[in-house]
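anyone else get weird line breaks when pasting these?? whatever heres mine. first is seq + tokens for prot A
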Amino acid sequence: MNHLNTVLSVLVITVLIIGCDSEHSTGKQRVRPAAPVEVAAVEVGSIREMRVFSGALEASASFPISPKVSGLIKEIGVDIGDLVQQGEVIATLDDAEYQQALAQAQADLLVARANLMQSESHLTISQRAMQRSRVLRERGVASEAEYDIVQSEQLAAEAQLEVQRAQVQRAESAVETARIQLGYTKVQALWSGDPSPRSVAERYADEGQTLNALSPLIRIVDIDPLTGVFFVSEKDYPQLSVGQVVDIETDAYPNEIFQATIERIAPVFQESSRQARIEITVPNHDTRLKPGMFVRAQVVVKEVAQAQIVPDMALVTRSDSTGIFLLSEDGQTARWRPVQLGVREGDRVQVIGEDILGQVIVLGQQLVEDGSPVSLASFPTE
């Protein structure tokens, strides 16, 4: 009997102990410890969405200078890198043949003028003979046949005079042509538009060479301004417009930005790449930028003046919903706020939603739910 009482006493004590432990354990589950988090302020300000395109610089104008006549090159006055003025003589051809052609044309002109004077004199004589024949016919001394002969001679003299006048005009034209041909032996740099100096990009011939007419001698480029060219896909095409500002970067000048503007947008996409050509105008007054340089063109495609901005690391996806956790005003709990994403700039992103103010949790979000207790902590950075 005493033994039975002892066993019952042990069972009761065990049940009480288990019940106390269970109750204590249940209490621990209900009280969740504060999760350590790190926060950042929700910004309100301007944010821009950028697109970066790779491209290259081209000369805004590029054309060859060629002689208009054939000849031996006697002298070339410019070389690669030199500046050339509008109308400047850049080369001289051997002009002996063209000088001789001019002298021959001038001599032919003198002969034509002499023949003209002779024809004028012959016409004067014919006119006098015509007057005498008319008087004699009226007196009955000369016959009609004699009068007709004199009249035909006058008409022939008039025709001959017209021929000689035409010969003089042709000889004068030949002289002018020979003079122009002679002038072409001095090769000039001529172009339309802006008369400001341009640069020699290439030289194709040397002194002593014989050059055919219209064969390129040098190539001239205009590098102020330059033209930048890049290509965009269908996705980015609607976001670009003529006049948009473009920031240019190149490896030749790291950490330096050059300003440009969109000048032309191709109305068609290339069939091979499904991309459209974009041309920008790049001022280059100091001529530091050169055609052929590769560049990165940054274009602001969208800008919001007053946006709510958070670090992109604050974004959380829960149950297919994107949102953020805000720190409560007392700094004790986390508050879930679903958001829509807007403009993104680097590691900053615009969020659109209601009651987004204060501080946002950027580290430790995986430990919390809506209403979870939190404590501010500093996380080590790698």
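and prot B, same format (seq, then tokens)
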Amino acid sequence: MKSILAYLLFFAVATANAQDRYQAAMKQQVSLLDSASTFNPASLNALSNTFERIANAEQTQWLPYYYAAYCLVNEAFMTQDKTKVDPISDKAALLAEKAVALKGEDSELSCLLSLIAVSRIAVDPMTRGARFGTESAELLEKAKTQNPENPRVYLLQGQNLMFTPEAFGGSKSKGKELLNVALQKFTAFKPESDIAPRWGEVYTKELLKMP
């Protein structure tokens, strides 16, 4: 009996230590997303690789896959060579689906998948705009039903309206209305943890400054 109790105690301590190491590693990497110097293709790619290594080591945590995909989709938006966008977006989608497999349907993941859809439009806006614009919009509506208090839903809806030509349903004024809703939601929003998604408030304010 004593040996069983000793084993259970050892297992509990080891599990707690592993969780502490995971939280510390994630917190360190997530904090890099607060730095403007991180937002260039090379740094985002490197950070995505780090998150993916954490994900592969943990195997049961969805957030490392989420952040690995988030870094890649931002890399896709910044990539000048359009022939490289689809491979980057494809990998981001694969990582996002791994997060969905672990977490299940979730507002943050629907927002991420919406971003990935938008990243594909820049390759050829004339032929891809309708398809991926519709996919992005549907994912954001899904994200809203999953969590109507998620500010990133309204940020991304507002951004999409602002950067879509009026001939295709875009509207800067309606976009800014949604951005103001996002800003109100950010004020009340409380992330679930130190490493939960919290991005977007600063970017919302920058978009609202645009003419």
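btw re prot B: The CA atoms of residues 42 and 159 lie 25 Å apart. The first helix runs from residue 2 to 31.
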